[in-house]
Amino acid sequence: MEPHWLVRPRTIRRLWIALIAVLAATIAAQFVVDMHPHFGIDGLFGFNAWYGFGACMLMIVGAKALGLILKRPDTYYDTEEDRNGNG
Amino acid sequence: METASVFHPGLILIAGALVAAPLRGNLRQAATLLFPLFALFALWQLPDGAAWHLRYLDYELVPLAADKLSRLFAVIFTLMAFGGALFALGQKSRVEAPAALLYAGSAVGVALAGDLVTVFIFWELMAVGSTLVVWSAGTPLAWRASVRYLAVHLFGGVLLMAGIAGHVADTGSVAFARMALDSPAHWLILAGFLVNAGAPPLSAWLPDAYPEASWSGTVFLSAFTTKTAVYVLLRGFPGTELLIYIGVFMIFYGIVYALLENDMRRILAYSIVNQVGFMVVGIGIGTEMALNGAAAHAFTHIIYKALLLMSAGAVLYQTGRRKCTDLGGLFQSMPLTAVCGIIGALSISSFPLTSGFISKSMVAQAAADQHLLAVWMLLAAASAGVFLHAGIKFPWFVFFQKDSGLRPAEPPKNMQAAMLLFSALCIGLGVYPDPLYAMLPFPVDYAPYTGAHVVTQLQLLLFSGLAFFVMLNYLKRTLTITLDVDWFYRIAGARLVAVIGGLISRTLASGSAALARRSGALHATLLRQHGPEGTLARTWPTGSMAMWVVVLLLAYLVLYYIY
Predict the structure, then answer these.
(1) B304: burial class by Cβ within 10 Å (0-12, 13-18, 19+)?
(2) pLDDT tens digits for B325-352?
(3) Cβ of A55 and B458 within 8 Å?
(4) What does the pLDDT look like over B376-415, one tens digit per residue?
(5) Under 8 Å CB-to-CB from B442, ≥6 apart: which residues?
(6) Nearest CA-CA partner of B359 in B338, B383, B378
(7) In angstroms, rounded to a whole number, what is the distance separating the alpha carbons of residues B334 and B339?
(8) B467–A87 C-beta distance less than 8 A
(9) Which of B39, B302, B419, B528 could form a disulfide with B12, with the two C-beta atoms 3.0–4.6 Å apart?
(10) Whole-number Å distance between alpha carbons of A67 and B481
């Protein structure tokens, strides 16, 4: 069966290209829009782009690290009954 | 009881619960839809100010009062009761719909309460209604979760009751007005409010209980308890700086736990804590802009979070599955559900043209206006994180990612209608926010659609999206849960009880052994003195008997002569 057009490799490649083009466009828009930064740091070039990207990386890595300590199998809280298949 | 001749919208919903409970079939469905509409109408008739007065003991109670803030919350709670009922028409449980009406009615009751006693009564009714909603899912897991849920909320209620009693003792007034953290009573009231907001350290009750409700029950649960807490914090503790820190913690707690989560509805439950965190920060900042932002965000949040949980509920209803690892590729056979879910996801992420964009940004703006750089930076990072954990993660793992091979049909028409209604509200408010702004407690001087705001928000969100797909390998779902504070009362508490129980029974055992030794010795003594061969039980010769009688009689004679 032919996969749905949205999940074909060709479509996915095009979606990546489109995403990168849109990303570039949001940066480029800084040149035509009056940005009136409030603090100073938010006036740095492309602040929201790299800050958002960096913050997300940090949160993913941070979550991953926390997961090393706090992750458990999802049967962790099951009772004897659940394990015997009555849950 | 002197009252203006108006109906109480909350009591109308509670009456609806009583009417709907015994009904079946179409009549019952009609009741669950009509009573929210009656309540909305009554709300519309309600004048500003105190509408009902009641003298009880020595106190002036105001069970029904309205101003802009309470009206805003009462309107969204009632709308939610209607939308949720529309979604839940096909629910087989006979308990859930009436319980949801009771739950919604008591939330409206809190919003329209003019005094702390009324707040407390509806607060506890809300705990009853919501527990019934969780419990009515009818699974052993839901039963156990509902008991834990109730325990936490009754504890919160005790804190609140103690605080209110202290407040009344201190001030002699039951009026519900702004409070400062200047007495133990006010601290207790704040703590009671924060338990329901999902604040630390007890946040875990929310992601523990909500995802165990039925496919429709979680939709109701997402709306009322936490947002009622936001309402009472807005009224009681605006500008309390502590709330900024609590809110920031909630925001990042929600993001990190949601990133690690595999259950689609638990992801959304964590993101409730995250979103309520934004509101709590706004309340902590306390300026008119911030309070408007918190109130507006509560309003839009109820709509898009219900929408997200409706799309998750539709998936659960059609597939019976709730883990991301079991799902994927559903957009192919459930395109409408997927689109509605994506609209909810974009709204929660504050994408331009959705409702989140026009509400959440007011809180960030307030932080900037107050020159709170650190708070502003954290809020910006958190906005990126919201897109990460809810905006992309939820639709991606449920509707896209790998193809699970599942090809479920779209859900029944009423569920589609509810999703379309709430999607329309998300986009409608995003495009035309003026009606919402007009309902906010303070005059709004804020224009969300400036070039700079749209561009910065798009940069922030789209680059977060890039981060998601770059890091996709690190976000792969696993069959795991993440330990939370509920571990302390589910595992540690149980173990502690077992240890203490062991100690007690061992103490009892050694105690009874000692007792047995003592009583053995006593027994031996008794046996020696009184046993068959004991000193006092021996057979004595008659002669010695007669001699002792003579001795006694002589002693008697001697004593008689002396005295």
Answers:
(1) buried
(2) 999 999 999 999 999 999 999 999 999 9
(3) no
(4) 999 999 999 999 989 999 999 999 988 888 899 999 999 9
(5) B288, B289, B291, B292
(6) B383
(7) 9
(8) no
(9) B39
(10) 9
d(CA B153, CA B228): 13
Query: Nearest-CA neighbor of B196 among B293, B107, B132?
Result: B107
Calpha distance B343→B355 (Å, rounded)? 10
Per DSSP, the three-state class of A76 is coil
The alpha-carbon gap from B333 to the nearest alpha carbon of chain A, in Å, equals 11
pLDDT per residue as tens digits for the range B535-560: 777 777 788 888 989 999 999 999 98
In degrees rounded to 5, what are phi and psi of residue B274?
-55, -50
A79: left (phi over 0), alpha (psi -120 to 50) or beta: beta
Q: Which two tokens stand for residue B52?
A: 């009902």
Query: Per the omega criterion (within 30 degrees of 0), is the bond before B201 cis?
Result: yes
A-B contacts (CB, under 8 Å)? 153
In the numeric block, the tokens 């954290």 are attached to B378
pLDDT at residue B132 is higher than 90? yes
Sign for the pseudo-dihedral over CA of B150, B99, B234, B177: negative
Least confident residue range of A27-36, B68-77, B162-171: A27-36
Query: Are B107 and B128 in contact, with CB atoms under 8 Å apart?
Result: no
Question: Out of A23, A46, A56, whose CB is closest to B385?
Answer: A56
Residues contacting residue B486 through CB under 8 Å, at least 6 positions apart: B148, B204, B205, B208
Confidence (pTM): 0.89
What are B331's strand-pairing partners? none
Identity of the amino acid at B136: S
Question: What's the rounded Cα separation, in Å, for the pair B355 and B423?
Answer: 10
Dist CA B244 CA B264 (whole Å): 29
Amino acid type, B337: T
- Measure in Å the smallest separation between the Cα of B111 and chain A Cα atoms: 36
Supply φ then ψ for residue B67, to 5 degrees.
-140, -170
**φ, ψ dihedrals at B174, nearest 5°:** -100, 5
Q: B139–A29: do the CB atoms touch at under 8 Å? A: no
At residue A74, the pLDDT reads 87
Per DSSP, the residues of B450-495 read -HHHHHHHHHHHHHHHHHHHHTGGGG---SEEE--THHIIIIIHHH
Which value does ipTM take for this structure? 0.90
Torsion sign over Cα A60, A62, A68, A70? negative
Q: How far is CA B558 from CA B234, B544, B554, in A?
A: 97, 21, 6
Beta bridge partners of B50: B65
Q: Is B553 exposed, middle or buried (0-12, 13-18, 19+ CB in 10 A)?
A: exposed
CA A55 to chain B, closest CA, distance in angstroms equals: 6
Contact status, residue B399 vs residue B338, Cβ threshold 8 Å: yes
Whether the CB of A2 is below 8 Å from some CB of chain B: the reply is no
- Residue in the structure block whose two tokens are 């740095």: A44
**What letter represents residue A34's amino acid?**
D
